[in-house]
Each structure stands twice: as C-alpha cells, then as structure tokens.
Q: What sequence folds into this?
C-alpha cells in the first residue's frame, strides 16, 4: 500500500460525488463553476447570513437566508468561471489547477462565457428579492469582483482584495434589513475582510512553490516563514472588529460571550497549522465553513436578543 506523501497537492477539481454522476458533457461546466467544491460558496454565503442575522432579520427576513444561499452558489460559480477565463494560462502551469476545464482544454473560452452569462442571470433573480438599497449595494460588488483575478499579478496581497469581495455579503445582508449601512454592519464587514485574508493565506500555502516559479504573488509568499504569526494577527483583528460589531448591536456581556466559540476555533487553526503540509493547509482552510456557522450563531443570538 502506498502512503500519501506529506505536502502532496490535492487536485483543484475532481470528478467525484454528485459531479461524478452528471453526464460527461455537463461535467466540465459543473467543475468550472466549482460545484464539486462547496467550501467556496459557504465562505461567500456566511457573511451574507451574518449581516442579516446581526441586523435582527432572523424573524422578519428569514426567507432571504435561503435566497442568499442560492445567490452565493451561483455567483461564486460565476466568479470562478470568470477567474478561470482570465487565469487559464497561469492555471496550466500550477500542479493543483492544471486540470481545470479551461486550462486543460476540456471547454472552450466561448462556452465558458455562455455559462458565465447563464449563472449571472440566475443571480439576477436572487438580486430582485432584495430591497432597492440592498440591490444597489450588491451591484457595486461587481467592480471589485471583476478586478480580483488581476490582483495576484500586481500585489503581494491578492488575499486582501478577496477579503473585499468575499465579505461584501455582510453589507448586502445588513442593508437588506435596515435599508442602510449601519456601523455594526460596517464593523462586521471589516472583520470579515481580515478573516478572509487569514484563511486565504492558509489556502495559498498549497501553491507557494508553483507561484514562486511562475511569478504569481500571494500573502503566503510575502509572509515567508511567518505564516502562522501573520494568520494569527489577521484572525485577532477580525475577532476585535466582530466584538465591536456585536457590542454596538447589544452592549451586554452576552455579545462578547457569543464570540468565544469562534475565537477558540480560530485559535485551534493557528495552533495546529503546518504551512508546509499542503493537505493540512487545505483541511484548515476548509474548517472555516464551520467557523462561519459559529459566527452566524453568535450574530443570531445578539441580533435577536
């Protein structure tokens, strides 16, 4: 029996699970939208849920939690398609991403654009469920989304730009309830940005060798041997901003106590992280799906108190 090599890279797209049951012609489209990687849309969804729940929308706006989940799935898929169109040449040079449908030639660029438009139209249906102010906030996210794939070429901190993009749902969720951007919502958004930088730095540890060879920049490369300390710093900042958001919503001790489970989980991530083991980095990254649930429960408890 062969033992897996420590640090071996898990392929970015795999023909398994529900995707493996699809007809062969449909499978590349599902892989292009990363439907085989639900972690991405969970991470996009949680800030949406946080914003709505902290604003007290658990009773009055609960259907939006489901609409936002649907929106996170299709818009994350659309974002991945766009990212792969832009990055197809770079993806072909990285071990983890060279099997993606565009990089491998399984799909044409024209087919990818048609698929992108289709997903965006589904996202439009979700957008129309929001109140007008929240619709405007959501549409404003398109500019940073369009710029994101180019960030790894011009800055060592593309993870910071991803934080802007993947945290935007907090602004949408909060404004969907209040019809405005409140201070707690803005603090929640800022904390989410810091959280995203932390977890995406962990994710980027998988590609450090290939990224260095092809000239792609990342916070994992920038931090060098200080990845754990850097991630700890960003997670600490996230917790401080979230604590401020919860306190501004409900200035009672329950607000801070609700954050303890999330703090313990992030502490576990940092304390046990091995940045040189690609499989461990991927496992820690994926654990943020559970971290998002912990903060959602905290926002629900404080927002409805």
A:
């Amino acid at each position: 029996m062969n033992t897996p090599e420590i640090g071996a890279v898990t392929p970015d797209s795999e023909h398994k699970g529900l995707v493996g049951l699809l007809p062969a012609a449909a499978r590349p489209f599902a892989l292009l939208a990363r439907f085989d990687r639900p972690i991405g849309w969970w991470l996009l969804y949680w800030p949406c849920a946080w914003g709505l729940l902290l604003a007290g929308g658990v009773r009055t706006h609960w259907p939006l939690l489901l609409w936002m989940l649907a929106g996170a799935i299709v818009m994350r898929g659309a974002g991945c398609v766009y990212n792969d169109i832009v990055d197809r040449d770079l993806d072909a040079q990285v071990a983890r991403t060279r099997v993606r449908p565009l990089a491998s030639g399984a799909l044409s660029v024209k087919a990818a654009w048609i698929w992108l438009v289709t997903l965006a139209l589904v996202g439009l249906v979700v957008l129309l469920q929001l109140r007008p102010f929240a619709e405007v906030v959501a549409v404003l996210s398109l500019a940073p989304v369009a710029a994101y794939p180019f960030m790894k070429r011009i800055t060592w901190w593309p993870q910071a730009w991803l934080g802007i993009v993947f945290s935007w749902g907090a602004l949408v969720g909060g404004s969907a309830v209040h019809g405005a951007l409140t201070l707690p919502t803005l603090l929640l958004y800022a904390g989410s940005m810091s959280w995203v930088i932390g977890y995406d730095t962990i994710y980027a540890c998988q590609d450090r060798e290939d990224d260095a060879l092809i000239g792609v920049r990342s916070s994992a490369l920038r931090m060098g041997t200080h990845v754990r300390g850097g991630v700890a710093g960003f997670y600490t900042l996230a917790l401080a901003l979230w604590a401020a958001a919860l306190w501004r919503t409900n200035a009672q001790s329950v607000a801070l106590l609700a954050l303890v489970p999330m703090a313990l989980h992030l502490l576990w991530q940092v304390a046990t992280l091995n940045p040189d083991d690609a499989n461990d980095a991927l496992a820690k990254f994926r654990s943020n799906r559970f971290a998002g649930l912990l903060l959602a429960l905290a926002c629900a408890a404080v927002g409805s108190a």
